[in-house]
Amino acid sequence: MFDARYLNKAMDLIDIHDLVTSRVNLGLVAGGSGDIWVEKAGDTMTGVLTTLGVKRAITIKVADYVATTTDEVIVCNKTTAIKITLPPATGSGQTYAIANINTGVATLDGDSSDTINGDTTQTIDQWACIQVVDYITNKWIII
Question: Same domain, yes or no, for 67 and 20?
Answer without folding.
Answer: no
